């Protein structure tokens, strides 16, 4: 059972970070759906509710998502439905149910770099940056490669480049964790292929991305993604199955992108 | 800690521990319609509205109700009764354990979606599990209630 000994609601992000680093066994609270599944004792829980991080806004260049925005906010936001072929709403809209997606937060999900994450796979296929209080602003791909530090993810920025993207996932049942997921995107001749839930973290398949960018056909490029990435087995599927399905999902996603005008 | 909140249009002050989840707090307050099926965010039985949005009360820390408006089935009895009658007529209620959470989600959907298609209905209700009915009766009832062809 989750235990919270002390709870603070900082008025500023500086204060939140100070508590996070100074207090032993402290943790930031997102929606708490994941935290509640464990049996962690948190000495000081940091609630970000007073920091106005529950928003999605759009300016000329970026769509900016605050850390406390929920998956349902992503699913229903008009700008996210309109841009990138609606890939972000599509990536989250099968996760459990509406009432769950009204709870879970973007900041917690991206910061935790869950291997099974649907959202991270889709975000990686776009021109996404994250902002951390201490670590600063950096591309999501760079953040994914760094080891986890004590920090607070405050915002996610997606550049409105006009990228067209497609998201595909394979699940045993519609609201189960994904067995494998993939996202493919295209901006002019620049393609990006991302595969996640391998079951480890999502990564960009660089060979496959390059092949598509160089005009190679979709089947060969999808095969390249399956060859260059590593897969492992767990109770949802074997490594071999994931590898075979990787080719299928990448092919489907690339075909959808190709068909978008 | 003390939580000032509104429950079913009534201002109340609740007492809850830092790590208490809203489902427990509301049940302790006497709202026994709230069911806990899985307690792991999967079944939707504990659905209440927070500021009108269907939300899992088993996964929402109670202190987050501060300054918000909570609605449970006790607060929407007339509308709930109307839908429950259709549910019963369609043979879509058996043990009834899932009904309060299901009804709260259906009523939230009615408020949120204009003329939903069958596909949109099914998608909106995926988070509500039922061990008895097999879902087809529920779907018939929702379509009838919302007058979906
Ligand atoms: C039953 C269940 C099924 C799920 N199925 C899926 C699925 O199919 N696909 C999928 O993609 N996801 C799935 N998830 C994960 C879910 O979508 C969320 O990613 C997850 O619950 C974390 O979000 P949260 O808001 O609940 O975070 P919390 O539980 O509050 O926090 C998770 C971690 O993040 C830390 N944290 C919170 N906010 C921040 C922040 N701003 N900065 C730094 N650290 C922070 C916390 O300290 C904690 O360590 C599932 C989760 C559950 C419980
Ligand atoms: S009891 Fe809350 S989702 Fe099952
Ligand atoms: S009627 Fe029994 S669980 Fe739904």
Report on the structure:
The complex is a heterodimer of chains A (261) and B (149). Chain A has 261 residues and is α+β, with helices and mostly antiparallel strands. Chain A folds into 3 domains: 3-47, Uridine Diphospho-n-acetylenolpyruvylglucosamine Reductase, domain 2 (2-Layer Sandwich), CATH 3.30.43; 56-159, Uridine Diphospho-n-acetylenolpyruvylglucosamine Reductase, domain 3 (2-Layer Sandwich), CATH 3.30.465; 165-259, CO dehydrogenase flavoprotein, C-terminal domain (Enolase-like, domain 1, 2-Layer Sandwich). Helix content of chain A is 34%, strand content 26%. A 5-stranded antiparallel sheet of chain A has the order 4-5-8-6-7. A 4-stranded antiparallel sheet of chain A has the order 9-10-11-12, sandwiched between helices. In chain A, strands 1-3-2 form a 3-stranded parallel sheet, covered by helices on one side. The model of chain A has no long low-confidence stretch (mean pLDDT 97). With 149 residues, chain B is an alpha+beta fold. Chain B folds into 2 domains: 2-73, Beta-grasp domain (Ubiquitin-like (UB roll)), CATH 3.10.20.30; 75-145, [2Fe-2S]-binding domain (DNA polymerase, domain 1, Orthogonal Bundle). Chain B is 35% helix and 15% strand. Chain B is built from 5 helices and 5 strands. Chain B has helices spanning 22-28, 77-89, 99-112, 118-124, 136-146; strands at 2-7, 10-15, 47-50, 53-56, 69-71. Chain B has a 5-stranded mixed sheet with strand order 2-1-5-3-4, covered by helices on one side. In chain B, strand 3 and strand 4 form a beta hairpin. In chain B, helix 2 packs across helix 5 (136-146). The N and C termini of chain B lie far apart (49 Å). One FE2/S2 (inorganic) cluster binds at residues 93-98, 130-133 of chain B.
């Amino acid at each position: 059972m989750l235990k919270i000994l002390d709870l603070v609601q900082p008025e500023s992000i500086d204060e939140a970070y100070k508590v996070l680093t100074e207090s032993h066994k402290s943790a930031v609270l997102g929606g708490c759906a994941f935290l509640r599944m464990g049996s962690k004792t948190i000495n000081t829980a940091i609630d970000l509710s007073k920091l106005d991080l529950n928003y999605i806004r759009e300016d000329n260049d970026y769509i900016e998502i605050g850390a406390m925005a929920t998956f349902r906010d992503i699913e229903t936001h008009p700008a996210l439905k309109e841009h990138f072929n609606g890939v972000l709403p599509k990536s989250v809209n099968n996760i459990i149910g509406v009432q769950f997606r009204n709870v879970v937060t973007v900041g917690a999900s991206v910061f935790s770099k869950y291997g099974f994450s649907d959202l991270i796979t889709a975000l990686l296929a776009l021109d996404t940056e994250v902002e951390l209080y201490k670590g600063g602003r950096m591309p999501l791909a760079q953040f994914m490669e760094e080891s986890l530090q004590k920090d607070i993810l405050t915002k996610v920025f997606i550049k409105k480049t006009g990228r067209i993207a497609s998201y595909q996932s394979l699940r045993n049942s519609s609201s189960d964790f994904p067995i494998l997921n993939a996202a493919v995107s295209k901006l002019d001749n620049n393609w990006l292929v991302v595969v996640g839930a391998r079951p480890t973290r999502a990564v960009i398949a660089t060979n496959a991305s390059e092949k598509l960018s160089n005009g190679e056909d979709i089947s060969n490029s999808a095969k390249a993604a399956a060859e260059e990435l590593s897969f492992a087995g767990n109770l949802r599927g074997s490594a071999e199955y994931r590898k075979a399905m990787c080719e299928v999902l990448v092919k489907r996603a690339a075909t959808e992108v190709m068909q978008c005008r | 800690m003390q939580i000032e909140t509104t429950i079913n249009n009534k201002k109340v002050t609740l007492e809850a521990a830092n790590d208490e989840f809203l489902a427990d707090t509301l049940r302790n307050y006497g709202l026994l319609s709230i069911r806990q099926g899985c307690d792991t965010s999967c079944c939707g039985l504990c659905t209440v509205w927070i500021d009108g949005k269907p939300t899992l009360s088993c996964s929402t820390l109670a202190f987050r109700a501060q300054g918000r408006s909570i609605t449970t089935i006790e607060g929407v009895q007339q509308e709930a009764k109307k839908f429950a009658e259709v549910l019963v007529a369609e043979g879509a209620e058996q043990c009834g354990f899932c009904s309060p959470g299901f009804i709260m989600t259906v009523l939230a959907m009615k408020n949120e979606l204009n003329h939903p298609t069958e596909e949109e209905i099914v998608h909106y209700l995926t988070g509500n599990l039922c061990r008895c009915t097999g879902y087809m009766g529920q779907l018939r009832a929702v379509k009838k209630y919302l007058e979906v062809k």
